[in-house]
Amino acid sequence: MSNYHIKHLEEYFQLYRKSVREPENFWEEIAEEHFVWKKRWERVFRWDFTKPEVAWFEGAKLNITENCLDRHLYVRGNKTAILFEPNDPKEEAQYITYKQLHARVCKLANVLKEQGVQKGDRVCIYLPMIPELAISVLACARIGAIHSVVFAGFSSQALATRINDCDCKMVITSDGSYRGAKTTDLKGIVDQSLESCPGVKSVLVVKRTAASIHMEKGRDHWLQPLLDKVSDVCAAEVMDAEDPLFILYTSGSTGKPKGMVHSSGGYMVFTAYTFKNIFRYQENDVYWCTADIGWITGHSYIVYGPLANGATTVMFEGVPSYPDYGRFWDVVAKHKVTQFYTAPTAIRALAKESLDFVDAHDLSSLKVLGTVGEPINEEAWHWYNNNIGRNKSPIVDTWWQTETGGIMISPIPFVTPTTPTYATLPFIGIQPALMDEQGEELMGNQVEGRLCIKFPWPSMARTIWGDHKRYYETYFSTYKNMYFTGDGALRNAVGYYRITGRVDDVIIVSGHNLGTAPIEDAINEHPAVSESAIVGFPHDIKGNALYGFVILKEVGESRDRDNLRKEINQQITEHIGPIAKLEKIQFVPGLPKTRSGKIMRRILRKIASQDTDNLGDISTLLNPEVVASIIKDAL
Ligand code: WT7
What we know:
Helix content: 25-40%
Bound molecules: 5'-O-[(S)-butoxy(hydroxy)phosphoryl]adenosine
CATH architecture of one domain: 2-Layer Sandwich
Largest sheet: 8 strands, mixed
Strand content: 15-25%
Oligomer: single chain
CATH superfamily of one domain: ANL, C-terminal domain
Number of helices: 21
Strand order of the largest sheet: 12-11-8-6-7-14-15-23
Shape: globular
Number of strands: 30
């Protein structure tokens, strides 16, 4: 029996039990047999959730890029590692082999060194979904620099906050980006950000759109001429298993984004092992995850997990609707994609369109379908299963988070029987717990509570960059000795988990994790606004959309409301990015508050969802009269 590739349900249960009873032995075997280390660990893991302190494979030395690149050169050097499908279907796809990828990563690594980037330095990567994005990530890892990828849909202010938070000394970007019919001036956005980022010493610019852009003398460099001058050999830096590999920002309940820090040894082991099993990857498969590398899904399941397994991983620059709603299926047919991993919001958007867009393409290559990012509703699940999976490709509904680094709860295809809307069973080594409001664990089946994890796993984030106290408070202070996820979940009669959604101030819109506080901060900066509150409400395609309740200052009272709405959304676009724009904005005389001054979001959520029959007891509010007036004018 190979522990690495799980083939039967009995095997899953056996391994799961082993991973709980003898976690050291279990993980040691996986780590030993399937990865290359330069030096062995002294201890498999160590943990103390009260601090929290977690370390995996301590004392071991490795470089993750040797596991993702070098070790494949002899076995599959001419196999495609990255298959790049451009935004415009008329532009040719690129097939980058393991040998070529290795050479390109080494070259860029040498450029980084030449520019003065050293082990431990932070490099911000702000690029569209072009091969250079994956190459930049790997080049940083090659020399031990910590990459911080910022999704190229974030605004200049959001970018600047992230650059400054972790003191990046370099930014890698492109002249522009293509997404659907739209071209974006990425370099212009970077220039704006850098006005408030004195720590950035150099900017490397990839040529993509050939737009004419400003190049700051002494700071900005076109990447290609630098690459032309350096060698394609670069020794991999020897890293400790616990050295930070990357920082990735996620939104939180206060305005400041949280820079989640991931380390290299445990992250590598867990993302590779989950990738292999949850997508049942086999040599010669073509795996496609439609996420952007700007999110954790792309880090773990476009770059590191697939490459550590020697897979062919597709990178798609475009959007599902361009040039038409058949694009995903066109790409699947063209490249004979075998595993397809996307978000419920994309499925819902495509399900609204004619089935002709699906039927025009041969989807017979597909073997496994995946979904991630938010709960998948029953209707979308069936549409995906019937029309894309033809009732024969299992759907893996994978629950996890930026903080968890890898997939935590998911079926294993052809092993775990699936049930629509259920993420089913914990992956090997993952020990979930459901907690009640009093802090007691709910034992047995058919219970619903708050989802926690009670034992460490190799790819968990180690801290929040520069703020370990916040790491403790956010995730480890709610329940003693538990990692609290922020999600609610239920466990059904057979022990399957279903994620019911966030129980905190995070709202998931089109699979993007948005905190209410940063959006409210952005709105409140508008000169006509005195206060605001954001809540989510159900939306057909986006899953949730944002509803803003806004109190105007006196100066705003006489202004045209539609113009104000536009300005508020413009304000949000500038501070965060278009993904955080409000669907509805209602101007209100006041916000329902508790006597201690806390906004009662529960009431606002009900109003936004048009579910005001049962508001519960509002008599304890400081200002109960305001509720009726908000309901009267609700949009
Ligand atoms: C939150 C994490 C990790 C991948 C992308 C999102 C929600 C994620 C599922 C799922 C129900 C899900 C949770 C989670 N979520 N996957 N399969 N079913 N909800 O990463 O931005 O860190 O968001 O996404 O609410 O806490 P993220």
